[in-house]
Amino acid sequence: MEPIRDDDGVVTGVFVGGYETTELYRGNEALRQSEERYRTLFENIDAAFCVVEVIFDDAGRPVDHRFVETNPAFERQSGLEDALGRTAREILPEHEQHWFDIYGEIVRTGNSARFESSSEALGRWFEVHALRVGTPEQRRVAILFNDITERKRSEAALRELNATLEQRVADGLAERNVLATLVEITDVFVMARDFDYKILAINKSNADEFERIYGVRPRAGDNLLGLLADQPEHQAQVRAGWDRGLAGEEVSFVEDFGDPGRTRPYYEVKFRPLKNEVGERIGAYQFVADVTQRLREQAQLVEAQEALRQSQKMEAMGQLTGGVAHDFNNLLTPIMGSLDMLLRRGLGNERERRLIDGALQSAERAKTLVQRLLAFARRQPLQPVAVNLEGLLNGITGMIDSTVGPQISVQLKLEPHLPPVRADANQLEMAVLNLAVNARDAMPGGGVLTIDAARESVRIGHRSKLRQGHYVRLSVSDTGIGMDEATLARAVEPFFSTKGIGRGTGLGLSMVHGLALQLDGELAIASEPGKGTLVEFWLPISSDAMGDDEKPVARTGGLKRRLGTALLVDDEELVRMSTADMLMDIGYEVVEASSAEQALMMVDDGLTPDIVVTDHLMPGMTGGELASALRARRPALAVLIVSGYAESEGIAPDLPRLTKPFRNAELATSLAALSPAAD
Question: Which reaction does it catalyse (predicted)?
């Protein structure tokens, strides 16, 4: 307002002026609404987005970039965690230079770039669209990308959505263009429509896919139902989701679309109500993403979880089996010890000695069965050394021939100059014999049993799933009846057998499988009905030189010379009684203790044993702990640990061990190998 004055300067009136600002206000409001809609779309899209600040060296060469903005999909698509504020070189030192060159060129020229490229450092392929944002001095590039590793298909750049946008306000044009470009170039299908089914906006990905499925291309302003007027079955399918979104519901579901005669991808479909600036519903919008690969990965995850449950079941079975086998060893120890002593002393007449010998043989068979149980439970004491596999296989060929019978031809195919493998020779022999017996039973009418061994280097993706390294692959194949998928899936389960009651324990393959895992190897089985079976067993190559075979220390029967005092410690009375008899028969005076604590008390009270023979697993103090306590008092005291299976925890590595059950000769051999006791 301004005053109006006459010639004398007296105010005679007021001049009032005004400007029409309605259009400016409407323009600002339209911009705000548009930005809000696009921000919502941006935050919900599955495409990855980031803004980087390109870093140049003193020579003007782009050498790195810093992440200054990322959307929620960035980490999922790129695999990079906690990237915001950090540089690419900091997160991924081996990131390739060509990425920095591309973004540096965009900063220099202002030209956007659309390309597909692989990142060896990330092990992925990407579809990328990048453009400069802000001023050139800010050196910032906006990047929208999708992981196309699995699909690796091109997606055309989409720009049609900009044609549907009305008024652009200069102050917010840059950000609006970025958001519009993000929606336009994403491979997520985006559409918005009003209550009359008129399309308000649709991106090119959606338009392309709609045309592929329904044979007609939609555009902004078209009526969605009108496009499908001659396809009523498709109209019903389209309305099913849209009507719920128009009613105000937030709808999400996964469904397959497309021609039934072609591959039908799976899509995750989301409908959300579309509201104006005052919260009134004006329609609905839709996001549709191809989730075929995600569903495939979920199915793979379910399979992996099932495999884990199976593994846990097998582990529980192993724990139970190992415990039962350990207790059974304690029962077998006095039985075998007593029978062995009666047989060696020649008591009874010929018939009675034959009965004793038969009972002892049965006990030995029971011992072998327990060894198989412990091998399955991965608790069988192993003595892995460098083993000459060629010599081992040649040495048991005769036994295999006699085991499988004359109707089966045994062929041994060994690669020349095989390196030594890290294994337990006795258990490896038992594993090969078990596989040979299984092959024999699979060829009731005769056939060919082939055993071959060759070097094999394991790399990433190898069928064995072993760690990378060098192995020897031992394979046993037959030309027998083979196995169907159901039988093959259960082949290594303990006690599973197809041989019928009384013809097998079902522990053969489970024992071999347990041995493979104990030796850091792997077992694989391939079979088809009528096409035979192939069992492959990978053994790690040993870095140790092969030594001479140990020569057992023989003890002359009827030894009467006194060897000193043996302190015998075992909480099982029958085991203690039998072991004491064997020790006395060998030549020791025996002092018994039923617990480690009692034995330690005896020593503290003045007992000076020459040797100590102790069980390991006992209530209270273990045998390993007792050995440590005794050696603290007498460092040179000879101690022999006796156990139903190898419990390495708490046992000094240099302590010799003897596995239950054992016979007199085995005990004598172990004691003879001990260092002489000395104070």
Answer: ATP + protein L-histidine = ADP + protein N-phospho-L-histidine
